[in-house]
Protein 1
Amino acid sequence: MTTSQPDGLSINLATVRAQCDLLQAVELCLAQGITAIAPWRDQVAKVGLAQAARAIRENGLQVTGLCRGGMFPAATPAGRQAAIDDNLRAIEEAVTLGADCLVLVVGGLPEGSKDIAGARAMVADGIMAILEPARSAGMPLAIEPLHPMYAAERACVNTLDQALDLCDALDPSREGGLGVAVDAYHVWWDPHLEAALRRAGERILAHHICDWLVPTRDLLLDRGMMGDGVIDLAGLRRSVEAAGFKGPQEVEIFSSENWWKRPPDEVIATCLERWRCHCQP
Ligand code: ZN
């Protein structure tokens, strides 16, 4: 069942990362009736894992994802192993926080490399190395395809189909524990998106939202508030829910020149208001 009550909304804490820490953000979300969040690891580390987990538990918060694991490619075997070790720590942190999934931003090209196929192979190897530990820990892994403009530096998995190909290759029997995060900002343009969402089905573990501004002035830090751009967020939500994912929509906005400069209570209130206006199926 869909709802426009605040419990259908999650705030990815990157949205207010410039203004407040995790504990302050939790208070501001609760003040708006929002009971789901998605923190980043650096935000958790800043207040301490135990204290973050306590605030989440005591307030009965849903954690729609921990951001983030991934970043697997590296120029040397030692670098790739260090990435795997870091992902194993991220899995433990996600378990401690009771997160629904660990989001994987898989990484781009190693420094100096022009071998994107090689980078993609390193990503597959990296996920393979952490899949069983994640399953044992009961922590689903959500591969997040990123818009192709990030292929070099952040993620060489760039479409939902490509992410699903990885899922099928590494988890062919659908044993579980491996899926995708569908972020409107990264996938809205894809002509194969509708079919890919149907293909994804129960592999959808998270749904991130924001808007694509025209013009976009910064490739990383100029994401828009829902309703300020060109993404049909209500239509995307319908497709995501038809595919089977009915969890909260998670607002994730990086906005160095606009939303990060505003009072955080105003930002969160605006997220709720815009989500009610622009994101209902
Ligand atoms: Zn995202």
Note: The radius of gyration is 18 Å.
Protein 2
Amino acid sequence: MTAATDPVKLSKQEVGKAAAALVESGSIVGLGTGSTTAYAIEFIGDRLKSGELKDIVGVPTSFQAEVLAKQYGIPLTTLDAIDHIDIAIDGADEVDPQKNLIKGGGAAHTREKVVDYFASRFIVVVDGAKLVDRLGSVFPVPVEVIPMAVGPVTLALEKLGGKPELRMGVKKAGPVITDQGNMVIDVKFDTIDNPDELEKILNNIPGVLENGIFVNCADVVLVGEVKDGQPVVSQL
Ligand code: 5RP
């Protein structure tokens, strides 16, 4: 791999490498989605190729993770073929001091939630810009919705005080379609006082499949930063 020079890329690369180093031979590994986890997947592949790591299988959280795992030679399995996941590595869009997360920047939060919550150990990998005092400070909450329910769910989200926006594709005309064939409404809230409660309220709206608030789920948050020109990884 060529070393990144952009500080954000360098942070993501280092934190991905640190997380990949935590994977042990013989384990079942949840493979998250996003640009940071992509580095972790690449480094896991490198460790497999060098023979340092043996007998692992991955559980992808998205088509992206599946494609990357195949590219880097990580054997894959599915949730119906296993009874546990040892470790999951995944990124986040925001992390608060209690290690609660907003995820779903890649519209993969539904599968990510299944895999990350199922894992015995969930490692979050972020660059320093993702740390916030309070969830919702910057990032909207992604809500995956079945297509026929977009209208009523949008109205329900407005009633809750949110500003909903249907996520549109980039290099694709029209809305983003998730790996499950649904749509994503990004909802900006002025403040999220109680993430635990909001997560449940959102999931209770008919037509909502899953939202991107992850509460009491992360075991370890690894943070990549560049200090004095050097990449460093710390633990929250
Ligand atoms: C995808 C996610 C990603 O993990 C999250 O958006 C972070 O992505 P990146 O590492 O590219 O910043 O939740 O649904």
Note: Residues 32-37, 90-93, 103-109, 112 surround ribulose-5-phosphate (CB under 6 Å).
Protein 3
Amino acid sequence: MTPHHIAIVMDGNGRWANKRFMPRVAGHRQGLEALRRCIRLCLDRGVGVLTVFAFSSENWARPADEVSGLMELLAGALAREVPSLKDNGVQLHFVGDRRGLSDKVCQGFEQAQGATAHNRRLVLNICFNYGGRWDIAQAAQQVAQSGEAITPERLAGALALAHVPDPDLLIRTGGELRISNFLLWQLAYTELHFSDVLWPDFDAPHLDEAIDAFAGRERRFGKTSAQVAPAVHKTSAA
Ligand code: IPE
Ligand code: IPE
Ligand code: MG
């Protein structure tokens, strides 16, 4: 079964570039190509929601030229990619802390979201200046300000991804076995898939491998295997 919501930590751009004696930003540029390809694949496979980690709260600590290169790539993508996403039924959301981002980028986010809000084929969440800890803290602050009790349900409703169900499958490329402050709350029962492929090389066989692995998992959500196994129907002839 195809997962409804796939989340991806798109990691390995820097190493992809290093291997080719290219600047790290060249890896990010190629990473953008891989994302474009991955969106098409998800559309083809009937995935409902794709959530990608594009820039973390902690990535500001990288060298200034890499951070500015990533901001330029983002601005270029906002200017160029939105029309085709719009035409292909993609509903865009930019998820993360807007503080620290330029007014121009924030306006670009709003315009892209507004232009694609009516689309229903694929919800694409781009997590930019996102951190799982930031998300939980901002949600807790919202609930506290409302004066309501802080319950899991109320908190979930205030998180930055409240418009979609939790991810079914998380893919991390680049070989690292960690979450790196991605969706800390939402990954509670997500199936995890780690791939050694560097993100710029990620293509159809790697996505299909992850989807196949997911299809073989038994999701128990705390229950026993007997409780969740599909019921075997006895026929009256037996
Ligand atoms: C992921 O690739 C993209 C961002 C974090 C923006 P990296 O840049 O982390 O690539 P590696 O891990 O150094 O290879
Ligand atoms: C996670 O990758 C963030 C993104 C992919 C945007 P990092 O490369 O920043 O993670 P660490 O530093 O290896 O944990
Ligand atoms: Mg990395």
Note: The chain is about 45% helix and 15% strand.
Protein 4
Amino acid sequence: MRTLDDLGDVSGQRGLVRVDFNVPLKDGEVTDDARIRAALPTIEELREKGARLLLVSHLGRPKDREPEFSLAPVAEYLADLVGTQVALAPDLDSVPDGDVVMLENIRFEPGETKNDPELAQRLGALADFYVNDAFGAAHRAHASTVGVVEHVGNSAAGRLLQREVETLTGILADPGRPLVAIVGGAKVTDKIGVIDAFLEVADTILIGGAMSYPFFRSQGHEVGGSLCEAEGVEPAARALEQGAGKLRLPVDHVLGKEFSADAEPITSDEIDVPEDLMGLDIGPKTAELYAAEIKAAGTVFWNGPMGAFELAPFAAGTRAVAEAVAATDAVTVVGGGDSAAALAQFGLDDQITHMSTGGGASLQLLEGKTLPGLEVLQ
Ligand code: AMP
């Protein structure tokens, strides 16, 4: 992987920097700036080297240049962070000169997600060199992440992309032991690739969330009204067979009548779920067992909540795991998405060694798949 160290002298040159500023906005204000801050090391390093920057990002999934998908609030926010003006270029034909310029949402261009060669070429013509620092978009082959590269002579991964790749591949290649993977969330089929990868290298895999139920069903248990992905049962059975001794399933759980913050939580040691109830969280015994594994770990990877953590009566399991991950002396790596949201909800997100900025991308990388945006930077 080429890094900023391989770019050579970029003084006076214009660099097109693909960043991931796909941040949540509310009423035109940035409500979570983690992704913007995560790109600052690259932006600052390139500016110190004398480069002028054209920042390119997507925001959401616009269909037709809807104003709520404008990057204008992000440009304003970044200007405050870097202490310089950040002009917003409305399109590729009107990019002003300036030290830091941001292009309007690249998905306003219909060719972006199609990796359209003409758009890629027009993007490339705007820059002397290219840097991709958008880990959260590196698993997509789009014009601004893949196509553009062949039209710019000099390209590299930014510091965030570099750190993401080094950390995530590092925990598979040479982890401090024991390596404990915590995998939760809704669906087995979303996570089976990463479970398979961890079956090879991890010492222990802790399963939680709704995806426990296909595992239980494969063992012949009743799952009642629990969210239980039918297509997940077969992969779950196979993982259980391969992972004997490594895979841990919940030993108790918290049931409720419905997926609602008003549902009364019912703790149960019985794995079979009655027909009129659904499993909505891991139980206290499971939380304690999982916390002990996390405490004794050398490396912890976590992706996916242990239950319906958005609902107060069913958040305790995810909270217990989040607290254990925050407190352990192990190296802790958290895949983006809901686990990151849970840690933020509990105010523990600053106690993690590496919080990935890309949910889908981090899973793909751990599954051993190449990321298109990374491949072109070799
Ligand atoms: P994922 O996107 O696959 O990580 O899944 C996260 C979502 O799964 C969250 O919105 C949780 O509310 C939901 N979830 C986790 N466990 C359960 C459960 N036992 N029942 C229903 N939903 C759940």
Note: Residues 175-366 form a domain with the Rossmann fold fold (CATH 3.40.50.1260).
